[in-house]
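Z., the sequence and structure:
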Amino acid sequence: MRKILKWLGISVTAAVLLVGGYYAYSIYHFTNQISVATGQDSKFKPQAQSQSPTNVQPVEVSLPPEWDGKERVNILLLGGDSRGEDSGRSDSVMVASVDPVTKKATLMSILRDTYVDIPRHGQSRLNAAFSYGGPDLTRQTVSDLLGIPIQYYVYTDFNGFIALVDSVGGIDLDVEKDMHYTSKADKHQFDIDLKKGMQHMDGKTALQYVRFRHDATSDFTRTERQRKFITELGGKIQSTSSLIKLPSILNSISPYIETNLSTTEMLQLASLGFNIDAKTIAKQQIPPNELVRETTAKGAQVLGVDQRKLKRFVQNLFEQENRPVTTTTDSAATKTNDTP
């Protein structure tokens, strides 16, 4: 009996070590594949000078501000609309801001038509920064707009989003209204056809939900839906079932993700992220409704904002973050964006 127990103990220990080793290898392999900080070449190249506004300098990739693990960390989350050979423009721009001490987080989605100063490229819509200089230039631009250091970025495209949602088994979400849109430009590959009501979304269906903006409120309610979906997705990733499937999840999404986080930083922030209750994450549209002004620039409609007031608003948002939570919906500042 002792020999049996001994061999049973050895077998269990060996199995635990093998499983642990497999998980560790999967995580290490994944982080090294997606991180430009480990020496991987970025898939994004600055646009040729002739494609940019005149009298500007080529984009220089800047080193991100250092984060020591105690100060607030801000991560730019980019969803790229790249359907051809070029990098396209950013279809979704968000900032996840985390206080590592209080374990509180705020998710800000930035209206892509916001008229901003793009370093070395003059003024344009925010999503143009991506086409000029990829994630790094967008990081710099958003950092200047909000008045906060944005240390890191994580980029994915349509395929990466679909792969991530499918890898966690999809998301259950209540669609607030019928959504329909067709386009011959991409051979109907990204048409939208959703019905109102609770439904289980796979990757392709989820992409339709977060992209829809063909109604009276356009990008305002689109970004609200994106915040809603990302929060639900974060909760699903934190679930036990997703943790069990972690190696396969990482393997399925690694071809579509790029980040400037190092392996160590990714592991540290992943650990921090699992300590944050997804249901308590504050969600905010940027700029908020009261600071947005519709205007025109170079013959095109854009969204103007007083940057001094916006920076003050963001700081107030962080101060409110540590107050008692009374609701999980967007703050009162954007309440008019709620879908009826």
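The mean pLDDT is 78. Residues 147 and 311 are 5 Å apart (CA to CA).

Let me know what you think.
H.
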